UniProtKB/TrEMBL annotation:
Gene3D superfamilies for this protein: 1.10.1660.10
Protein name as annotated: DNA-binding protein
One Pfam entry name: HTH_17
GO molecular function annotation: DNA binding
Source organism (scientific name): Cellulomonas cellasea
Signal sequence bounds: none
Record InterPro entries: BldC-like, DNA-bd_dom_put_sf, HTH_17, SinI_DNA-bd
Residue intervals of the Helix-turn-helix domain: 18-66
Keywords for the protein's UniProt record, in alphabetical order: DNA-binding
CDD domains linked to this entry: HTH_MerR-trunc
Length: 75
């Protein structure tokens, strides 16, 4: 019996999708270790997988992202 898992593009479009620290870091343009520190400090809630890895709720991350000022492209 084969177990199939959806690819990343399918899973991130589903409501309540979970993101890896790397994916969250790319959204905020920070290092993945920074995202881990945010989780340890309680600034961002994380879910642990059975393997002990952190995953972050996409909805929460997107809400936080809307509060982050965007980079200006003045040249």
């Amino acid at each position: 019996m084969a177990i199939t898992t959806p690819n990343r593009s399918e899973s991130t479009s589903m409501p309540g999708a979970l993101l890896t620290p790397g994916e969250v870091a790319a959204m905020f343009r920070v290092d993945p270790k920074t995202v881990t520190r945010w989780a340890q400090a309680g600034k961002l809630s994380a879910v642990r997988t059975l393997g002990g890895h952190r995953r972050f709720h996409e909805n929460e991350v997107r809400q936080l992202l809307t509060g982050v000022p965007q980079q200006r492209s003045d040249v």
